[in-house]
């Protein structure tokens, strides 16, 4: 089952550091909004970015925790920078690369680019053809490395995310629900 | 639900803005002096901050390879940023450019070996500090297993040497024991150069894991190798060197061991960022085992 962790960007990280909760005015006045992007489009971009990270993660055979981390990094980044100035897809790719390193299942940038290329073709219902290793590819790779650096800088290297999933499972075990598959999977 | 930190007058963004205006995060702020050492992924330089005129250590990580920031660097920075302690090296600044990632640390003038060698003629109040967190890891609810290729061979515990990958904080307590011994007598306890040799050296002192030697005989062996250690110290050392990881003393219990009693109860109330030498009565003094006047020593720093 594919977990969708999208609509509650900050709901799931309050356990990590003590400064991760954003004040209301920051949640309402995002950098994208300041740049003139309407809220619906921003929400769509956030959801799309997280779905891309999830799908790419599955194709790259990453552990689920890496996708969750990548999505948190992605969401946090766009409370600091705007979708208008920083393209969603490049950031999503860099978040996959970064999360794979943080969660100790590193993937090569080349593989990440290939997988995103594949997803793009499937979504557009185009015939599947492999990525050509031309100047465009080289530029894209440089962009991903740059985006990774930008994400690290914006988040001040605070990239260790404590996810609630394991803790929910632990609570369910304590409460004696460990046999309840539905609840366990939901966590 | 939403919490606004009222203690900070500046927002994070405006604080960062003003830090960057002063010169943080830029290479021009630091003057590179001598090269101090070179590791597999980084070079360390002595440097000077133009902001404060203080000496700093510049750990320069090259980013020439094609995969962005190395995960060791990400790990080291993200963990060090959260640590504030009198005995842990302080990370002052990070300079991240296209070609390199430079970590700016406070400058420590000696490593532990040099520090111990000089102890005779400098009874100063310097703190020992931990540095290099390239292989450190954040602790959380354990689920996944790790590699067993961890920890310098000399300080690697037998369970990991024999292939265990289900380790936790207890693996470090074995290493603490080894370094404790090394500080006391100036020689490493188990200086093996291969895994097999390392295990042999351990077995010679502790016996085989199936037929471990009795505590008394282990104590005698350790005592004969490190005559400067007293009975209490040997007792603490054997608490660290337990075969079974679960049986090893934890860091917090270790600090309550009788060996540290001479430091007095105040040391347990010390805030993280305070030096142990801020406790009245604690100072370095020449090796107490030479004068044998162990009754009135208030120091167990083995110096």
From TrEMBL, chain B:
What Gene Ontology molecular function terms does this protein carry?
A: ATP binding; cyclin-dependent protein serine/threonine kinase activity
Sorted keywords for this record are: ATP-binding, Kinase, Nucleotide-binding, Serine/threonine-protein kinase, Transferase
What Enzyme Commission number(s) does the record list for this chain?
2.7.11.22
Q: Where does ATP bind?
A: 59
Under catalytic activity, the entry for this protein gives:
L-threonyl-[protein] + ATP = O-phospho-L-threonyl-[protein] + ADP + H(+); L-seryl-[protein] + ATP = O-phospho-L-seryl-[protein] + ADP + H(+)
Q: Which Pfam families does the protein's record reference? A: Pkinase
| Domain Protein kinase residue range list | 30-260
Q: What class of enzyme is it?
A: transferase
Any keyword Transferase?
A: yes
Similarity-based family: Belongs to the protein kinase superfamily. CMGC Ser/Thr protein kinase family. CDC2/CDKX subfamily.
The protein's matches in PANTHER family, at most eight in alphabetical order, are given as:
CELL DIVISION PROTEIN KINASE, CYCLIN-DEPENDENT KINASE 17
The name this protein carries in UniProt is cyclin-dependent kinase
């Amino acid at each position: 089952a594919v977990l969708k962790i999208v609509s509650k960007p900050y709901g799931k990280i309050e356990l990590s550091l003590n400064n991760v909760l954003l004040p209301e005015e920051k949640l309402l006045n995002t950098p994208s909004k300041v740049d003139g992007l309407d809220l619906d489009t921003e929400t769509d971009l956030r959801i799309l970015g997280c779905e891309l990270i999830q799908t790419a993660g599955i194709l790259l055979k990453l552990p689920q925790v890496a996708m969750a981390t990548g999505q948190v990094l992605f969401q946090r980044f766009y409370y600091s920078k705007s979708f208008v100035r920083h393209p969603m897809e490049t950031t999503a790719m860099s978040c996959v690369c970064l999360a794979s390193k943080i969660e100790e299942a590193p993937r090569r940038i080349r593989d990440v680019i290939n997988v995103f290329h594949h997803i793009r073709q499937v979504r557009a219902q185009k015939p599947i053809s492999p990525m050509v290793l031309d100047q465009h590819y080289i530029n894209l790779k440089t962009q991903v490395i740059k985006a990774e650096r930008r994400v690290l800088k914006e988040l001040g290297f605070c990239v260790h995310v404590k996810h609630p999933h394991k803790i929910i499972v632990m609570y369910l075990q304590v409460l004696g629900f460990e046999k309840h598959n539905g609840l366990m999977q939901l966590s | 639900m939403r919490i606004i930190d009222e203690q900070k007058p500046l927002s994070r963004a405006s604080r960062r803005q003003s830090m960057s205006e002063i010169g943080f995060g830029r290479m021009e702020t630091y003057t590179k002096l001598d090269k101090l050492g070179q590791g597999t992924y980084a070079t360390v330089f002595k440097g000077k901050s133009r902001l404060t005129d203080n000496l700093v250590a510049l750990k320069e990580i090259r980013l020439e390879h094609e995969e962005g920031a190395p995960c060791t660097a990400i790990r080291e920075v993200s963990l060090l940023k959260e640590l504030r302690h009198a005995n842990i090296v302080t990370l002052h600044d990070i300079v991240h450019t296209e070609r390199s990632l430079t970590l700016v640390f406070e400058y420590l003038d000696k490593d532990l070996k040099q520090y111990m060698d000089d102890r005779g003629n400098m009874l100063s109040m310097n703190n020992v500090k931990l540095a290099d967190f390239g292989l450190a890891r954040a602790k959380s609810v354990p689920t996944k297993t790790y590699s067993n290729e961890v920890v310098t061979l000399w300080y690697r515990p037998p369970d990991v040497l024999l292939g265990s990958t289900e380790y936790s904080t207890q693996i470090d307590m074995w290493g603490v024991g080894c370094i404790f011994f090394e500080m006391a007598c100036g020689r490493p306890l188990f200086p093996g150069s291969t895994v097999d040799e390392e295990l042999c050296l351990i077995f010679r002192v502790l016996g085989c894991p199936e037929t471990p030697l009795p505590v008394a005989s282990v104590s005698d062996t350790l005592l004969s190798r490190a005559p400067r250690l007293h009975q209490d110290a040997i007792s603490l050392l054997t608490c660290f060197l337990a075969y079974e990881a679960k049986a090893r003393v934890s860091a917090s219990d270790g600090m309550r061991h009788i060996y540290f009693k001479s430091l007095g109860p105040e040391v347990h109330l010390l805030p993280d960022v305070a030096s142990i030498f801020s406790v009245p009565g604690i100072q370095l003094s020449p090796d107490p085992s030479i004068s044998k006047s162990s009754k009135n020593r208030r120091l167990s720093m083995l110096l």
